[in-house]
Amino acid sequence: MKSHVRTLQIAFTYIGTIVGAGFATGQEILRFFTRYGHWALLTIMLSSLLFIWLGTKMMVIARRIGADSYEDFNRHLFGEKAGSRISLFTLVILIGVNSIMLAGAGAIFQEHFGFPYQAGLLITLTGSFFLLKRGMSGIMQLNSLVVPLMLTLSLIIIFNTFGLPGAERFLFLQTDSSSFGAWMSPLLYTAFNLGMAQAVLVPLARHTGDEQSLVRGGILGGIGIGFMLLAAHFAMSSQMPGILQYEVPMGSIAFRLGSAVQLIYLLLIFLEIFSTFIANIYGVSVQLQQRLPIAPALVTPLLMLFCYLFSQFGFSSLLGVFYPIFGALAVVWVSMLLRAPLSPPPQGTEGKDKAKGITIVAVKPVIRGRK
């Protein structure tokens, strides 16, 4: 039973890390899949297979080499110098993304819940701080709540779409986009999201003693991501091309299903921002603790302070310059992950951190330059 629970926690954390606010609004799915018409069904299946294969492979490698942070993992893939530089650039991107997500959480509180913008930021930061004190256990528990809710909403949207006149349109939808662009999209989408998710998935793997649970969780998580991609594409295809005019295409669908579904949807957008924000802060904090000569207890509060300050300014324009560069880097990163051999299983002892309820494996890291 404990093994099955751990598998579900890993799967939910994987799904919750990939499925952020861009996914929930529908913009990511519309841009990477739905606009390619009848190709989208096949490319979603390809993306799901890549999430199953590469996400699981990344976590297994991270566990076997004893990587504490994504910098350790990148050093393993690229070598000491290149891996360190790539991790530093990833750090900048993650801090920028977190700042924008924090600003988005403040906007949701202001526009939909009637709170002042600054109050929304402070509520999000306070909740994040106390949850992060629980470490990886807190992240897994949060996703164990949020992800089933997301899956339930996906099912509601699917059942509602079945009754619409254009329900079968996802099979025959025409597109002017090239087939080359359609088949490149799942690779770019998977690469970008896994490049961002490594900040969470690497520490998650390090704190999982049972490799079989890790593998099963990775497979189940990839299937869950694919299901949610397909559910959103199915719903939005039935509304094409009119849905292209909406900034929040999935919101236009959810709002038609009544006030209860609308409230659940708004709550989900916030929870997805909240869970991704917490997960990224945790991953970045782990890396910064390796780099900065300050007390580990100060790293997370200082990082959250930086995100709060950046959320006050137009940081999104600067991130708009960095995003394409990170996207290209993510493709290279995934190419290296594809080529990376699986390290042999670690020779070590397993034990349990009773205080946190997390299985830990004592292994000798094989990362170059670390003792």
UniProtKB/TrEMBL annotation:
Superkingdom, taxonomy of origin: Bacteria
The keyword Transmembrane is assigned to this record: yes
InterPro entries: YkvI-like
Segments passing through the bilayer: 12-30, 36-54, 86-109, 115-132, 144-167, 187-205, 217-236, 263-282, 294-315, 321-338
This protein's record includes keyword Transmembrane: yes
Keyword line: Membrane, Transmembrane, Transmembrane helix
PANTHER family found in the cross-reference section: CONSERVED MEMBRANE PROTEIN, MEMBRANE PROTEIN
Name the UniProt record assigns to this protein: Uncharacterized membrane protein YkvI
Biological source species: Paenibacillus typhae
